[in-house]
Design goal:
It catalyses: [thioredoxin]-dithiol + NADP(+) = [thioredoxin]-disulfide + NADPH + H(+). It comes from Cryobacterium lactosi. This is NAD(P)/FAD-dependent oxidoreductase. GO terms for molecular function: thioredoxin-disulfide reductase (NADPH) activity. Keywords: Flavoprotein, Oxidoreductase. By secondary structure, the chain is of the alpha/beta class. It has 2 domains: about 220 residues, FAD/NAD(P)-binding domain; about 110 residues, 3-Layer(bba) Sandwich (FAD/NAD(P)-binding domain), CATH 3.50.50.60. It has 7 helices and 19 strands. It has a 5-stranded mixed beta barrel with strand order 2-3-4-5-6. It has a 5-stranded parallel beta sheet with strand order 8-15-9-10-11, covered by helices on one side. It has a 3-stranded antiparallel beta sheet with strand order 12-13-14, with no helix packed on it. The longest helix is centred in the C-terminal third of the chain and has 19 residues. The two termini are about 35 Å apart. The N terminus is likely disordered.
Length: about 350
């Protein structure tokens, strides 16, 4: 048994329910998790933050639109946030990969005064595996992304090619841009990009869907749709120069955007069966509650998916307020609204 009441990996996790659980286990140390963690430790909630140090935006050199931090590297933002969180006595950080989150046998999901979950991790960077118990869990792991299968696309991702239009549109203004994607929402993305450039080509790689009506509307704005299969994104001297089409044509482009396919990075919670949407994103109410009592989610792992870092941080802070309130227990005269919109009393 650890001094803090957690268990070593391989121990009987059910026995941990009799030990002091964490008030909150936060999975993910991105903007949502860090904002939640900071607010929770300031409320003196014993909090364990778990992170695998595999952020989706690790290739991005600068992030924008975050008040007081415009232009800061995302990794620097995470470093500052972690330092602020760990400055509080109630904070603990564990470098690890979460393997499972499960309900404790016999735990009443509605009772926030007792441990309801076990969280199992694989330690990283020399840290040991752990199994801990928690009264509440916040999933803030964001998304896993899949880019179009072009050999060199990763070489330009985060420098000349970006996924967040609101984050990087200003820096790409007035250039010859490409939008590369294989999804059915390319027209909407192209429309957003058009406010920064009048030289944009949408590349579907023979897969992405743009309706004839949308193509006509884009053409009226000077945006061309290229439906041909692509060979690669190419460049020289550290700068992107264009798109190589499978039929041999080279299309000059100096930068642009890519539309990845996304999925929630939360397979570890599968045993809890939280409600998800058609894309696998975890459904939450306005306070971040999932369909599983005591389980919360915030940030990109919830609909609508990828958003600006500032938005994710706000969602994390809002979830922290709801978690802190839930840990105080219910008052019979104060109803709350559940995920389905039904009022619950007590």
């Amino acid at each position: 048994m650890r001094p803090d009441g957690s268990l070593n990996a391989g121990s009987d996790s059910a026995a941990g329910a009799a030990e002091a659980p964490y008030d909150v286990v936060i999975i993910g140390a991105g903007p949502a998790g860090l904002a939640a963690g900071l607010n929770l430790v300031r409320a003196r909630r014993r909090t364990l933050m778990i992170d695998s140090n595999r952020p989706r935006h690790s290739a991005t050199l600068r992030s924008h639109g975050f008040i007081t931090r415009d232009g800061v590297p995302p990794l620097e933002l995470r470093r500052i946030g972690r330092e602020e969180y760990e400055a509080y006595p109630a904070a603990e950080f564990h470098m690890g990969l979460v393997r499972t989150v499960e309900s404790l046998p016999g735990a009443d999901g509605a009772d926030a005064t007792v441990a309801r979950f076990t969280v199992s991790t694989k330690g990283m960077r020399g840290e040991k595996n752990r199994v801990v118990t928690a009264r509440t869990v916040l999933i803030a792991t964001g998304l896993a992304e899949t880019l179009p299968a072009l050999p060199s696309i990763r070489a330009w991702y985060g420098t000349n090619l970006h996924s967040c239009i609101a984050c990087d549109g200003y820096e790409e203004a007035d250039r010859a841009l490409a939008l590369i994607g294989e999804t059915d929402d390319l027209a909407e993305h192209a429309l957003l990009i058009s406010q920064w450039t009048d030289d944009l080509i949408v590349f579907t790689n023979g897969v992405g869907q743009v309706t004839d009506a949308d193509e006509a509307a884009l053409a009226a704005r000077g945006i061309r749709v290229d439906r041909r299969a692509l060979t690669d994104v190419v460049g020289e001297r550290g700068a992107m120069t264009g798109i190589q089409v499978a039929d041999g044509e080279f299309v000059p482009r100096t930068g642009g955007f890519v539309r990845p396919r996304y999925e929630a990075a939360a397979a570890f919670a599968g045993a809890l069966h939280p409600s998800v949407d058609a894309y696998g994103l975890i459904l939450v109410d306005q306070q971040g509650r999932t369909s599983v009592p005591g389980l919360f989610a915030a940030g990109d792992t919830t609909p609508p998916g990828p958003e600006q870092l500032l938005v994710s941080a706000g969602e994390g802070a809002r979830a922290a307020v709801a978690i802190n309130r839930e840990l105080l227990g219910a008052l019979a005269t104060h109803p709350r609204v559940n995920l389905a919109g039904r009022t619950e009393v007590g």
